[in-house]
Amino acid sequence: MSDLRSVLEIGQDKLENINNFLLDPQNVLTNQLLDVVEKFGGPAAINQKAADNGSPESLMGRLKETCSPYVPDLEWLAEQKDKGAFVPMGDYCEALDVDPSGLNQTNAVTLEISAMQYFPWLIAQAKQCIASKELMPGRFIRVRNMAEQSADMGDTLATALAMNIMGCTWVETLDTKGTDGSNIHLGGPETITGYFGGIGQPNGHPVKWLEEYLHYYTTYGVKQVLNINPGTVLLGYMLNKLGVDNEFKISVFMGNDNPYSIFWTLMTAKLLGTAVGEGRRLGPAVLSFLLMAVPMVLVLREPDLGTSLVFLAIWLGTIFWFGMPGILLIGAGSIVLSAAIMFYSDIGGKAWPWGVYLIVVIGILYLAPLTTTVRITLLGTNVAAGIGIPFFWERLKPYQQDRLLAFFDPSRDQFGTGYQAIQSKVAIGQGGLMGTGYLAGTQKGLAFLPERHTDFIFSVVGEELGFVGAVVVLGLFAAIILRGINHAEAARRPFASFLAIGVVSYFTFHVVVNVAITSGLLPVTGLPLPLISYGGSNLLTSSFLLGLLINIGDRQYET
Question: How does 502-513 read in b/e, with b if 16+ C-beta sit within 10 Å?
Fold first, then answer.
């Protein structure tokens, strides 16, 4: 058994990796924590402000300054405490005919009120306990909205002072918790949002939680807050490590009443991250590429270059979301850039642009903190991409070659392959700022612009609605894309997250490429503008994908 136990030992190299991660000057997460702490003056200043503003004198002084109606209640409470009006534990046990010396104090618990909202209730509870000779609860958990109670005649100040007078502990529930900022104890959809989709998702809520906590700690002396997610628990640990005298209660809904969950809280990120560091994600990445390549090659042989590239775009989006190292994606981008510059050099009969590009690549690889293997691989792929362009050119269809040549020089065939690109730019330019007016475009009305109802519909938008209308259309697409990314971040199931990012990649690629083509920034290839271009297949596909995205958003908290 001892031999088996030794397997659980965490090596010093792993612990050193954790320290290196925390101390790395480029660590965004640690930097965000330190920025917030420095914003409040540093640990020593934070503790001093909390001690000063949380003192009974300060709390009562501010209540009197605002003429709070709770001042008489607090003065009465202090008088009762000084008179010994509250029943001590010994007297309570004696009234129940129980010998206090026989009680097991090893796992003693405190009578707790777990849903206190308004300060007047606390005074009513105190009066009832004194009159009935009952024990006064020693711990209170507040669930009322913090901003609301702070603005309510000094409710937060009064509660803090009352707890100080009675010697009780209390826990506040901060407003920053769920993805929508809802109070998790109020029931309904907000409860689901708070407990199961809150802080710790890929967003900035943990940092917002930290900033809100330090605000109430330094303003009212609030030391304990309810933590409902590993993101805030970890920040609480780190804050205490920095020297801030904070405390917090870990919600039972986190499962941290189970001691094994502590292992998860502190170690899971490192242990799971090891798989990425050791390259174990390479297998799934390669397999996904092969699955993508099959339909891509089949569509390319139709031939349909535009649609085949959609498969590649979706794969790149999902593999980035999967967590492949950025150097691989940068390497893939450099290959495309090498091929494009080589093509420009080839059709222009000038070799120097590609030669200059290779010199720049070599310089960057020399200065970049990369291994020799990675340097050689990236350089080799860039050279291979450039050398392979002549062979690739020969395999293109004649119309594809004409389109590429027309992209670099539309005037070479103004009434042939370059005609569409020229007329498209004329239409967009003619629209100006506000456009010619709905259905008043001459490029469309007089049929100068081919395929104006399908792949070049954006040219019509630019002509008839102008720059303002085009920006509005692009803004609507941006809203869909950003909403999709938000759903991908919030989705708790990996499948749903990857599906959402795939839909986002589909729309992003279609919109960017279609607009770039109509604006003359890319060679002409057939690719519709989702939801706008004429065609039943495009509309059906886009609607189906949007339906999936909406469904993911509705079910993002399911596990």
Answer: bbbbbbbbbbbb
Say how far apart CA 146 and CA 155 lie, in whole Å.
10
Which of 69, 239, 214 lies closest to 146, judged by CA? 214
> Nearest-5° angle of CA 371, CA 373, CA 377?
120
Half-sphere exposure (CA, 13 Å, Cβ side) for 171? 19
Predicted confidence (pLDDT) per residue in 14-48, tens digit: 778 878 888 888 888 888 889 999 999 999 899 99
Q: What are phi and psi of 91, to 5 degrees?
A: -65, -35
399 to 303, 330, 396, 439, 460: CA distances (angstroms): 11, 31, 8, 32, 25
What distance in Å separates the CA atoms of residue 56 and residue 94, rounded to the nearest whole number? 33
272-278 long-range contacts (CB < 8 A, ≥24 apart) are 274/14, 276/323
Burial 440-458 (b: 16+ CB within 10 A, else e): ebebbeeebbebbebbbbb
Nearest alpha carbon to residue 59 among 161, 152, 182, 159: 161
**Could you give phi then psi for residue 448, rounded to 5 degrees?**
-70, -30
Percent of the chain with pLDDT over 70: 71
Asked whether the whole model's pTM tops 0.70, one would answer: no
Let me know: does 425 contact 364? Beta carbons within 8 Å.
no
Count CA atoms closer than 13 A to 350's CA, side-chain side: 7
Give me the residues paired with residue 249 across strands: 226
| Cβ-Cβ contacts under 8 Å for 271 (sequence gap 6 or more) | none
Q: Which of 263, 230, 234 is nearest to 32 (CA)?
A: 234
User: HSE (CB half, 13 Å, CA atoms) of 245?
Assistant: 12
| Through-space distance between the first and last CA atoms of the chain, rounded to whole angstroms | 36
Per-residue HEC secondary structure of 333-366 comes to HHHHHHHHHHHHHHHHCCCHHHHHHHHHHHHHHH
